Fold:
Amino acid sequence: MEDETMKFAVALPQSNRVGDTAAIRDVAQAAEELGFWAVSMQDHIVFDGVWLGCGAEDDEGRNDRRTVFEQLTTFGYVAGITSTIRLLTSVMLLPVRETILAAKQIATLDQLSGGRMHLGIGVGLSGTDRDPQVLETLSRNATVEMAALGVDVTKRGRLADEQLEALRRIWTDDSASYDGKLVRFKEIEVFPKPAQPGGPPILIAGNSPAALRRTARGGYWWLPNHATPDEVAGGLAALAESGHRPPECVLDLFWRMDNTTAGARAACRGTLENAFGDHLPVRNLVGTPDEIAARCREYRDAGVSAIEMKPVFRSVKELIGMMETLMTEVAPTV
Structure:
């Protein structure tokens, strides 16, 4: 890994009832001041609000639960109110986005932010019974979202593979061409190029064999989600056997920290507890500061270099308090 020190990223309050401009501003600036490595955002254009991506079932938010601030637009705002913290898409649903426009938007954001963009990429759910059971509510949303945006779910993996190759062409070639089965363009000139040569680091999301193959094939970073330490270690071993050692392994999971284990678990009642059941504390960070520190050390020893946390919180004040405790009491011990 590039840096042996465990890094931490926190998801911004961009969705559900807590999705709010002031909340996004306050959390982004607090994260930078506290020394977080990155702030992150999810990606849904069409969203029914059933899945709880931000906040808690009993949070103080007042917005419509179906709220999702658009990822790239919002990062433009965040880039302007911060100066050093990285900006991580976790994840961008690449198949729902037009390739050339996405390349332009990402390159522009990388320039505006001074080279701080990091691109976590997912192909999205299929909206079928092949999706993970814990993501059943998101799977139902995917059925509507993919159809509304004209994505053939049977080709979304192949489309993402071609898009990733095409993005690199656009970001590196003065006159870019790509002739794939699903993505085609010829001799197009798209400027500015990203501030980071060759474009932002790309992280491939997912724990499946297909995600691991995509990570190895492109030489990308790996972004597993809700994985146990053993599963992370197994995935990294499989990547090494294929000849690829990701520069970074960034783990994506939910995070709730409280004075007691029971209090942390209680805050996750509803959507998250129903989705994960007894696996909630096994596949996420849920517990006291000491318990979370111990769990982070297990992930560090498994090969995780950064943890991207989607916090469960009732108010922005409570969230910033959790962030302060993490960086002052937990991070120094990991």
The longest strand covers residues 86-93. The chain has one domain: 7-333. The CA atoms of residues 174 and 189 lie 6 Å apart.
